[in-house]
Amino acid sequence: MTDWPIGISTGCFYKTDIMECLETIRASGFSMIEVVFSPAHLNYKDPEAVQRAALKIKALGMEAYSFHAPFANDIDISSTDLDRREYSLDEILIAVEAAAALGVHYFVIHPGPENAEHPSREERLVRIENVVSVLNRVSLRCSELGIRCVLENKLPHLLFGNSHDILWILAALETTQVGGCLDTGHAFLSGDLYSLVYKLAPYLRMLHVHDNKGHGDEHLPPSEGRIDWLAFMRELVQIHFHGPFILEIASGSDPEIVMERARKGRSYIRSLARRIAMEPTAIVPHV
User: Fold this and answer.
1) 266-276: per-residue pLDDT in tens?
2) What is the CATH number of domain 6-283?
3) Separation CA 84–CA 105 (nearest Å)
């Protein structure tokens, strides 16, 4: 199976109203999208704005496959402060309602704050238990609305950016309804992209796909960085991964250039997929 569907995150236009960029995305041949939460892009707290976006996505023959949960310095589901943790949960649950209104399959969430805190071992354990507790509640609401929650691996310098953390959280959850979203750029910077494919295999539902040169989160199209995409995709075949590749391309001042780079990344992935499909090992079970 190498005919993975390829979509794109609307995050490449996070500073632009989603109503103004959907046609640009569709004109580039992308029908599957992940919608991001940026207030300038789509205010997930405004049900009318969400409904307008949902109607336009449908009218253009597109599919909102996933929705990225809000992440910011003030959103911290691991916080030791109950009020801040409850505020963070409330924000995420509002976003879950927006995701359901868009008709998505998956709700992508980061496990913890967007900062590089290094708490004591004792506080770290408390924080990771808080993440598990909140995710159980988020997953329950997602299930009630007919969508699935997936946990994304973070950048290595952030709290819970270690692959061991995401695996611990997934295993500790009461529910089996939470899956994994492997972010290729984050994992490459962590140095464990290729091994994380196998570690996350039982949970893996979708991919966030972008490249970098090993020094920063550049969100380059596949082929422009140092990731060995051929090796990575062969591993996906070995674990029988059937989910989508969601391209996360850096934003830019010229929408046409952004989409040209996205198309280039898509073409590269498809060319490698065709190459793998022609290899004898692609159809031989991994032993």
Assistant:
1) 999 999 999 99
2) 3.20.20.150
3) 28
